[in-house]
């Protein structure tokens, strides 16, 4: 059983935009921090953006600051990642994740216990 499912990935031109969505399944438990991670072939999984479910300031990795925006719809249990001005370096599998204990600003993958299967983003 998958607890989080991403959608919205695809292939775009450099400079283009995509919006990723992450839907929680009905069996997922309440979480404190939700975020997006990405992993390219041969690269370590890195945190992209995160935000507390209660709200507050979003946190971003430096490489996407000013280009990506994380947002959420608590009522619908959907997490979004708006990606603008995409670059080839953004090409990766993107995963949404949720955690009870993570400090969102740390963007540390080991802190997250719930993961979606990922959605591919390719920029060329």
Folded structure, characterized:
- The chain is mainly β and 124 residues long.
- It has strands at 4-7, 10-12, 18-24, 33-39, 46-52, 59-60, 68-73, 78-83, 92-99, 114-115, 119-123.
- The strands form 2 sheets. Strands 2, 4, 5, 6, 9, 10 and 11 form a 7-stranded mixed β-sheet that branches. Strands 1-3-8-7 form a 4-stranded antiparallel β-sheet, with no helix packed on it.
Q: Mean of the pLDDT scores?
A: 92
Structural category is: mainly beta
What summary fits the major beta sheet?
7 strands, mixed
**Low-pLDDT regions:** none
**How much of the polypeptide forms β-strand, as a percent range?**
over 45%
The helix content, as a percent range, equals: under 10%
- The number of helical segments is 0
Q: If you compute it from the alpha carbons, what radius of gyration comes out, rounded to the nearest whole angstrom?
A: 13 Å
Distance between the termini: 34 Å
Shape: globular
Number of strands: 11
Topology order in helix (H) and strand (E) letters: EEEEEEEEEEE
